[in-house]
Structures are given as structure tokens and as C-alpha cells.
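ABC transporter ATP-binding protein
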Amino acid sequence: ALLVDPRILVLDDATSAVDAATEAAIFDAFRARRRQTTLILAHRRSTLTLADRVAVLDGGRIIDSGTVDELEARCPLFRALFSSPPELPAELDDVDSDAFGRDRSEPTTEQLWPQAPKSEADSTAATTQGAGGPMAGALSGIAVTPSLRAAVDALPPAREDPGIAPESLRESNPQFSLRQILRPVRWVLLAVVVCLALDSAAAIAFPSLVRYAIDHGVVTADSSTLWIATAFGALLVAADWVVVAVMTVLTARAGERVLFGLRVRSYAHLQRLGLDYYERELSGRIMTRMTTDVDALSSFIQTGMSTAIVSVLTVGGISIALLATDVTLGLVALAVIPPLVVATVIFRKISSVAYSQSRERISLVNADFQENIAGLRAAQAYRREEGAARRFAERSESYRRSRMRSQRAISIYFPFISFLSDLALAAVVFVGAHQIANGSTSPGVLIAFVLYLGLLFGPIQQLSQVFDGYQQANVGLQRIGDLLRTRSSIETADSEDLIAISGRLDGAVHLDGVGFRYSGADVDALSDFDLQIPPGTTVALVGRTGAGKSTVVKLLARFYDPTSGSVDVDGTDIRNFHLSQYRRRLGVVPQEAHLFTGTVADNIAYGRPSASHAEIEEAARSVGALNSIADMRGGMNHPVGERGQGLSAGQRQLIALARAELVDPDLLLLDEATATLDPATERLVLEASRSVTRKRTSVVVAHRLATAARADLVVVVDRGRIVEYGPHDVLRYAGGHYSGLWDASQAREGNNLTSRTVIEGNPVA
């Protein structure tokens, strides 16, 4: 932000995620710069030290403005928001307390779960449920028109059963192969092969029927023979139509089952992979594997594979029929096969490389697109739209060039096939005409040969076109296989050695000599980290930004496994627990919680979808979120957009806290979970959470030391090691690291703001 030397600088609670000492250094740097007008959105009292003037907002209106001293003297809401004591001041009686929920009566169930009019409810459901595919995020806000809804409702119910148990697909199996994914549909494929053989037989029999009709009906003027041949031809066409119809249904069923299996298997494997995989892999590349690669393989199975089998059977059968009908003409027609084989081998080598390159480059295009959409606000703020568009165009052009290389090969190969087809036809007609002239063959044989050649080179051209789809499917299969063979960094013991968690955990935590280094890092994030947490204890991890506090939470949640040492819960290394059962006993709230498209109630009940309305309400009550939810239009039914769009940061965090409370965890992990809340709301949440944390082991990462002061024990972390450990009251006066952090925090958060240095230059609001 400072590098561009802006004339207007907007800081949206920019220092909430850093410790007090780092924040002080940042503020000192801002004081040294007096060239821009700065607008600050402040949640911390310390941030106000930067301001020349402060504006107090409530209900979307400015209710007062002035200096800090002036507002301290005359604005009860300001004093309520930024008062140092944990309790709100008494003079809030004349202030609208909706923002705090302190003096308000608790909302009723009817207020929390209002009944929307039917039309409005339908509209909400249409715009919040969204799509389920790769564009679900982009389509989640599209309204469903009445005509579209009526058309969807008119569709017959889906009765197709994939015939594959989803549980078997979720099991880890690194021995991925095409045979493995086709095994569940092997009987369907066998039926398809039978249909293909019948279809090929019908195609091969038809020219022989035509030859019989010409030689024994047309030449001899025998109308009865013509009628018989016509009847047999009609029966042959009708039977082939039935066979093709059945084959189409069967191939579609097999393809959809394979598509279902691949997607479920790939998604289950992605869920097993550690966070390090997502830190090194572009999201667009992952999406390409889940969409483009899977679709390419499914499309080939549905259409390409059946076409290829029909073509191979037809070419083989027709080659035999050509030689059996007339050896000389047969050899003339088949003389073009050797150059065709050579051309196909060359085309395969060229196109396979081009397809691999194009698939990799479309992954980069997708990744760049997703990154630009996610970072659109930053691009607009720093006027980088043109640069982002130029980079996207460059990557798209790179993809276009790679596709054009394959298209150039196609433009040579396919016309060459047509040239060989025409050449063979001309040669057969030339030789056959001479044979008819000298009486060595009949007109029916020549007509049959012409028909056979059409059937011969038609499948060959189809094979060449199917080969294009095969190459794409083969690349997709390799890329999906690479994904499914990727080992998770979260190592799991053999299933028979895993310890089942049938009841609750006591919550005794021991990090025993833990060391950890992130992939690609040069130094350890944690080193010889040894910490014991008794059951039911609330522990606050404090320290400078980057000290390793969040890493401890990630190890406890088993998002990563330690490089050395062990993380034990109730005396057992958590690597020996069933991972899903262990995480079911956790409640995790990160600093920026992710909310899903749906409603507020859906997000609170995300960890327990079967929770009742009463249980959802109680979870929200436990974290002090009821009044905030009641203020939303629709209450618990308020629609939540993708990643929590439409909600403030504080509202998102309250919902995330309620979500963690609802699962009733034995181990609660809060990673700066209240950093985005204003001080008054944070006090209410902390007060409401006292009873919540008292009954379970809680680990809290805290930059606001007022939060740490409420913990039973405080652990000071510096450069991946524990440098201090003990109760707040002891460490506060010990003269060590914590004492220094506390003094810095109080100097900035305390009431003595009259001694601050006022920024000179343009007013800061």
C-alpha cells in the first residue's frame, strides 16, 4: 500500500492480525509519512493514536465526530466501544445498545426464525442453493425464473442407481488404473461389446445383401428376389436400430457411472491430502483435474470407446469380406493400410505432446482466472485491472498456441486419411471396371466393393477422430492417476492399529519435543516445543507475529504432522487415532472463518447437519450471537453468499464461533477468532465464552493481550520455542517477554491517549 505512495490511504482494520509490538512499529512508520490523507476503520483503541479526528458510526450514520478527547468526554457510544475495563460503562443507558446486545432482551424463536412469504422463500431458495458443479460459486446468485422452475419440476424423478457404493470410492487406493475404474461397469461394458459386435455384423452384411440383390435380382430381372432382399434389408436395419439404441443407453450408463466414481474418488482423496498440497498446487490446476480431465475420460468412455470398438470390428470384418469377395480387388483396396499406419503413429507422437502441454496450460489459465476473481478488490484498489487482463491474455494465448500445434497435426492427418480413401476408391473402380469388361467379375461385386470401401474408410476416419478424444482422455487419465497416487503428508497408521474414539476425550494435551518445518522453508517453524495442558484448561498462545503460534493450532487439529516429536491427547499420539473421529471431537475457529453458500442456520449447523432449531439457538446464545443474528433480515434464514458475502467480518466470526460450539468439542482451538470484532462485541463474546471454555480444553492464539489475560495459562512463543509459561498475573510482573508485550499493549490500548503524538498534515479520519 505504501509502495505506490498514495494520496489517499484506506486501512480496514489492517493491524488486527499482528501483535502489539509489531503494530507499534507499523504505526511509527505511518507517523513518519505525512503525505497522504488516511481513512482508518478501527476496532482497536490503539489504532486511534493515528487519528486527528474520529467519526463514530451507528446504524449506517455518523452520530458524532471529533478528537479522541472530545469523544471521550461527550460520546457514550465511543466510551462503550473503546473503554478499557471489561465491563461496559453504566452511561450506556441512553445509547442504542443494539450493537452490543447487552441491554437488549433476548430475541424470541419467532424473531430468529421468521416465516418469509412463499414467493420470497422460493426466491431465496433459488438464489442461495446454487449449482453443484465447478461453476457453483459463479452460479450461486443466479435467480431461477418461474418458467425454468416449472420445467425442472416437470422432469421425471431420477431413478438411476450408480451401482457403486460411495463408501468404497472414499477408501484410499494408490494402485489407480483404468482397469480399476472400469471394474464396477465390466458387465455393462460386456453388454456393450455384444451390441457392438451385432452392429458391426449388420454393417458388414448389408453390402453382401446388395450384391445378392444386384446379381440375382437386377441382372436376372427377378422381382421376387428383389423383394426378398429388400425385406431382409429392412429387418436388418430395424434390428440394427434396436441394437444401437440399447448400446447408446448402456454406454451412457457406463460413462456416467465412471464419471461418478472418478469424481467421488478424487474428491475423497483431495480431502485426505494435507494442507501442504494445497499450498503448493494452484487451485485452477486442481479444478482442471476435477472437471476437464474427468469429463474428457468420461466422454471417451461414453462415445469414443464404443465408436472405436465398432470401427475396429468393422474394419476387421470388412477386410475379411473384401478378400473373400475378390482377392485382387481386396488387395488393391487394402494397399493403402501401411501408409495409414505410419501416419497414425507419427500423429500420435505429435498430438500426445501437444495435448499434455495444452492441458497444463489450461490449468494455468483456470488458476489465473480464479486468482484474479478472488483478488478483484486488490486489483481494483491498486489499478491493476489492465495488468491482470494482460497476464490472463498472455496465458490464454499460450494455451491457444499449444492447441493450434495439435490442430495443425490434425489438419494434415485427417485430410491424408480422406486422400487415401479416395485413392483406394479410384483404384478399385479402375481395376473393377476392367474386370467387368473382361468378364472376370460381376457388377454386383464391384458395387459391393464400393459400399465396402465406404464402410472401411468411414470407420477409419472415425478412428482417427476418436484418436483425438483418446489422446485427451489418456492425458486426463494420467493426470487423475497422478492425483490419486499423491501421498498425503498426514500419515495414517494401518487401519487395524488405529484407536477408535467411542466417547469423549478428557482433553489432556502434550506436545512432546515437537519440531516442524513447512515445505520449502529454510528454518523450523517450531523447534523442541514442549507443552503440557491439563484437561479443561484454557491456554493462550502469545508472541510476535510469525513466532509459530498458529502452527501449534494446525498441529493440534492435525492439519499437519510434526517433523519430529509427537502431539499426544489423553496419552495417545493423535496419529494413532482415526482421523475423522479425532477431528469430530475438535472445534476450530480460524482468524478468517469460511462460510458456505446457504443460510445462517446452515452454516452454524455445518458440523452437525441434524441439529435442531433449539440446538442451533443455544449454540448462538453461548457465543453471544443471538442479537446479531436477529438483526439480520430473515434471522437464522438470512441467506449467506459465497465465502460469507453479505455479512460483516464480525458477523462471520460470530457464526463461526457458534458453529464450533454446536459440535460440543472436547478440544477448542481459537486462532485469533475475535480479532475482527470490535472491542465491545469481543468483550461480550469472551464473557459468553467463559462458560464454554470452562468445561473443555481450549487453546487460544491471542494478539490482543486482554484476551490472553482471561486464560488460565499463558504461553509466550518466540521463534518457534516456548520462552515463558504461567498465569497472566505472574507473567505480567515477571519483567520478561510477556511483561514487555503487556506494557506495549497497555500503552496503546489504555486510557492515556491524551499523551499521544498527533499526526501532522492532512486530517486522518
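thats it. Residues 85-102, 117-144, 751-765 have pLDDT under 50 and may be disordered. The CA atoms of residues 63 and 273 lie 51 Å apart. bye
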